[in-house]
Design goal:
The chain is α+β, with helices and mostly antiparallel strands. The chain is built from three helices and three strands, in the order αβαββα.
Length: 123
């Protein structure tokens, strides 16, 4: 007899729980994805090749010249560089508010200005 009195109340709680689960599922499907926004990191990288040059030669004759020339570009946050045998990579990191397209043009112009100072054979 006690079971018969609890059944309507139990049915109500089950129906209520299922309603909440269904509403949660529908609401979740309609939420926009903001946890993984589409961002582009404001970075411009220059890679230079000089076959036959050791890391020390690359750093002194190529990497440092490029670093000095691009360091005066507007909105530069910091510059990273790495040098290996025959390869120099200079990465220019801009502030988040910077326009990367303008920064890329500025970096290209600065590198083009020092091309005649680089050793013959640098590409």
């Amino acid at each position: 007899m006690a079971d018969a009195a609890c059944t309507p109340l139990s049915d109500f709680y089950i129906f209520f729980a299922l309603t909440i689960v269904i509403l949660d599922f529908v609401s979740f499907q309609q939420l926009p994805i903001d946890l993984l926004p589409n961002i582009s990191i404001p970075v411009v990288t220059t890679v230079t090749y000089y076959s036959g040059a050791g890391p020390l030669d690359m750093e002194q004759s190529v990497t440092r010249l490029i670093e000095r020339s691009v360091s005066s570009v507007n909105d530069v946050s910091y510059i990273q560089s790495s040098t290996r045998e025959g390869i120099s990579r200079v990465r220019v990191n801009f502030n988040w508010s910077a326009d990367v397209d303008i920064g890329m043009v500025d970096v290209m112009q600065r590198v083009n200005r020092i091309l005649n100072q680089l050793p013959i054979g640098v590409a």
